[in-house]
Amino acid sequence: MAWILAGGLAAVILIALIAIGRIPRAAWEICAAALLLGLAGYAWQGSPGLPGAPRQAAENAGGGFDEELAEKRRGLAERYGKAGQWLMLSDGLGRQGKTKEAANVLLSGLRETPDDPNLWLGFGNALVAHAGGVLSPGADFAYRRAMAIDPQGPAPRYFYGLALARAGQLKEARALWAPLAASAPEGSMVRKELEQNIARIDAMLQSGG
Question: How far apart are CA 194 and CA 192, in angstroms?
Fold first, then answer.
């Protein structure tokens, strides 16, 4: 049953990207490949046979919204014009535990401005929050889309690396964070945090964790 839901979700995401995101026909195969890779990762690391945990209590307590991460996103990335109103509305819904609505708001924003990296980044974060911290295929695609639009921006690389690290993909997270840490201002909090995270990853990799 879980595989049917995962495959159906991937199909819905692809259709939404084509119909709402208005990606060009030439990119359809790339998007489909990205979703298939996400499903492959789920097959490798996930446990589709296990029952899901109830979400009602978590949603009533504020869902997966993380105020500290929202503040960090604002500090790293928010140089947005119209994107600001969508992100603020999404954050407000997230604080109420309405994680699904928070993600849907950003889909509306992407319909209006499909090439805004801040909206794609926010959408990835919202999908991770709605999934209880899991890096879903849709969130993976959203982060990659944000990085493709703004390859030099620190925020997409920071948050995608964070999601990868939490998903256990430590080498991939390190590959994103190492150059980001090197380019961050000397003595900045972001650089210190990234260097600490990279040191933890190195220790885990060396110990085989």
Answer: 6
Q: What are phi and psi of 116, to 5 degrees?
A: -95, 115
C-alpha atoms less than 13 angstroms from C-alpha of 59 in its C-beta half-sphere: 12
Angle between helices 154-166 and 137-149 (to 10 degrees): 160
**What are 19-58's pLDDT values in tens digits?**
554 555 554 455 455 544 454 444 434 444 434 433 333 3
As a residue count, the chain comes to 209
3-state secondary structure of 164: helix
pTM above 0.90, yes or no: no
CA distances, 194 to each of 152, 188, 189, 199 (Å): 17, 10, 9, 8
Average pLDDT of the chain is 75
Q: Are 136 and 41 in contact (CB under 8 A)?
A: no
Q: Using one digit for the tens of pLDDT, what is the confidence trace for 51-83? A: 443 333 333 333 455 555 556 555 554 555 677
Who's near 105: CB < 8 A, 6+ residues apart? 86, 89, 90, 93
Q: From CA 88, how far away is CA 82, in angstroms rounded? A: 11
